[in-house]
Design a protein that fits this description.
The chain is an alpha/beta fold and about 240 residues long. The protein has helices at about 30-45, 55-60, 120-130, 140-155, 165-170; strands at about 5-10, 50, 80, 90, 105, 110-115, 130-135, 155-160, 180-185, 210-220, 225-235. The protein folds into two domains: about 1-50 and about 155-235, Dihydrofolate Reductase, subunit A, CATH 3.40.430.10; about 55-155, no CATH class. Strands 1, 2, 3, 4, 5, 6, 7, 8, 9, 10 and 11 form an eleven-stranded mixed sheet that branches.
């Protein structure tokens, strides 16, 4: 069974995700304060884990692992590394090459989801550092990956915190149960800036098809922030 997924994201009022491009708050508050509000809201959701896509994880771990080994070639391998934190940080690495310098991010132990292309020396490196991992048969099948996360790591709820590509992939596979949208009081305005959901598909595809949003709460926060919560419903059944 798949964990409950809450997509928790902060965007500009035009739905863009690059904070360095957003206009400044009207009241002159340092934007860092607003990002702290977003983080505090995320913690208040009380999830067992939080999750980034690879591009966002790269911001914390920018170096690549230069593998010299052979692909493991089989799925189903699970390694439980350090589990001292109350929450887990999860990321998906289709290329199996993030060079982790620690088994923690922001104080939370790391779990990485990999495909069969992961090499033996890369897995050995993760084990040496105490980074947990799961090797899946098809890394594009996010439902199966989340099922394994729940089965082996007892994760019941996940806060999905982007970026837009992983959010779009989860949306298209019908895996998001709630949207926790924190709107920053500023604008980007550029057409090509990444947005909340960035599904990589053909123009005729409709990744949100069959899903509908029910507003369950809205709250005005300090410094002009607005927090909206929506429940996802499958209306295709």
């Amino acid at each position: 069974m798949t964990p409950k997924v809450i997509c928790h994201i902060m965007s500009s009022v035009d739905g863009r995700l690059l904070p360095g491009r957003w206009t400044a708050p009207f009241d002159g508050t340092n934007p860092a304060k607003l990002f702290k509000e977003y983080a505090a809201i995320g913690k208040s959701l009380g999830t067992d884990a939080w999750m980034f896509g690879k591009a966002t994880a790269r911001e914390a771990f920018p170096y690549k692992f230069m593998s010299k080994g052979e692909p493991v070639g089989e799925s189903g391998k699970v390694f439980v590394g350090n589990r001292t934190s109350s929450r887990l940080f999860i990321t998906i690495d289709p290329d199996a090459d993030i060079f982790f310098t620690s088994n923690c991010l922001r104080g939370d132990n790391i779990l990485v989801i990999l495909g069969k292309n992961a090499t033996n020396d890369y897995l050995a490196s993760l084990e040496e550092k105490g980074v947990s991992y799961i090797v899946t048969d098809d890394i594009r099948n996010l439902r199966k990956s989340l099922d394994l996360v729940r089965e082996h790591f007892k994760i019941e709820t996940v806060s999905l915190q982007g970026g837009g590509i992983i959010d779009g992939a989860m949306l298209a596979q019908g895996l998001i149960n709630e949207l926790s949208l924190v709107i920053y009081p500023g604008i980007d305005g550029l057409t090509t800036a990444p947005s909340i959901f960035e599904y990589l598909g053909h123009s005729e595809e409709r990744p949100a098809d069959g899903q509908a949003l029910e507003l369950i709460s809205m709250e005005q926060m300090p410094h002009g922030i607005v927090w909206l919560r929506y429940k996802f419903h499958n209306i295709s059944e």
